[in-house]
Amino acid sequence: MTNQKPTATSRLKQDYMRLKRDPVPYITAEPLPSNILEWHYVIHGPEDSPYHGGYYHGTLLFTKEFPFKPPSIYMITPNGRFKTNKRLCLSISDFHPDTWNPAWSVATILTGLLSFMLETTPTLGSCESTTYEKRRYARQSLDFNMKNEVFQELFPEVCEEIKERLAKIEEHRKANAAATNNNTTATAGATANGAAAAAAGASPDGLLDVDGADGPNPVTGAGADESNNIWHSLYTNLIVLIGFVIFALIVHYVIKSMNIE
Fold first, then answer.
1. How confident is the model at residue 92, as a pLDDT?
2. What is 8-163's CATH superfamily?
3. CA 58 to chain centre
4. What three-state secondary structure class fits 42?
5. Residues annotated catalytic, as ranges
6. How far is CA 23 from the centre of its chain?
7. Is the pLDDT score of 22 beyond 50?
8. Which of 56-70, 136-150, 174-188, 245-259 is predicted least confidently?
9. What mean pLDDT comes out for the span 78-85?
10. DSSP single-letter state for residue 86
């Protein structure tokens, strides 16, 4: 009696060796050391997609009947295209055993998953989101994945990439914060200088408002014109008042003369 290895185990080992020789673009995949039927993958968001810069972690769960039965496919990292921790209904997943081809390998499954992720076709397990939301998920995926112990254990090289990117993002944030603080300090200093100059009788640009300068003289300029206008109004009102008084006296005299007659 011969002792043959299970078909699934031997086939998955072959697929793993093929993946190492010929990796799938934008995808890294590793089986659990303790269970070759459970694979974990990381999709690196392609440059020309809203997923660019993101790292999307998910799982492939194979049965012992593989390659004659398809695996279950899950996405773990929020991404805006697939729901997390939900079985995905794809032609390469266990939702469609009727369309499954035993000749398809792990590389075929991962290639099909990436292709469908870049589409917008709805299916069971998919979700809708805007391009802005997908890009936000891409940024958030860095911190999200680093909190997953299995992710860190299976993908140490990817974790190093993420750590470098997070460090650069933090440096950029600090540089922006420093620039903002410098601008705020400069603005506050300019405001304080302007206030001090105004208190000293100078304009904010340092030019004193004195005789012979650009600013108006406080005595012979606008202030003198205002005083002249006030006196002119007083004179006018006084003349009008005197006129009314004279007119009233004349009327009174006329009425008195008529009574005497």
1. 96
2. Ubiquitin Conjugating Enzyme (3.10.110.10)
3. 25
4. strand
5. 89
6. 33
7. yes
8. 245-259
9. 98
10. S
Distance between CA atoms of residues 69 and 98, nearest Å? 9
For residue 36, the Cα-to-chain-centroid distance in whole angstroms is 40
Q: Which of 186, 204, 184 is nearest to 196 (CA)?
A: 204
Cα–Cα distance measured from residue 69 to residue 97, given in angstroms and rounded to the nearest whole number: 7
* pLDDT above 60 (res 218): no
Structure tokens, 231: 């006196």
3-state secondary structure of 208: strand
- Helix boundaries (H) for 55-155: 106-117, 131-146, 149-154
List the chain domain ranges. 8-163
pLDDT digits 0-9 by tens, 99-139: 999 999 999 999 999 999 999 999 999 999 999 999 999 99
Query: Strand pairing of 55-61 and 35-44?
Result: antiparallel
R_g of the chain, CA atoms, integer Å: 43
Average pLDDT for 207-229: 45
Q: Residue 46 corresponds to which tokens in the numbers above?
A: 């392609």
Q: Provide the 10 A C-beta neighbour count for residue 89.
A: 15
> 29 in helix, strand or coil?
strand
Neighbours of 135 (CB within 10 A): 19
Contact 13, 2 (CB under 8 A): no
- Residues found in the chain: 261
Q: Provide the pLDDT confidence category of residue 5 given band limits of 50, 70 and 90.
A: low
Start-to-end CA distance of the chain, whole Å, equals 163
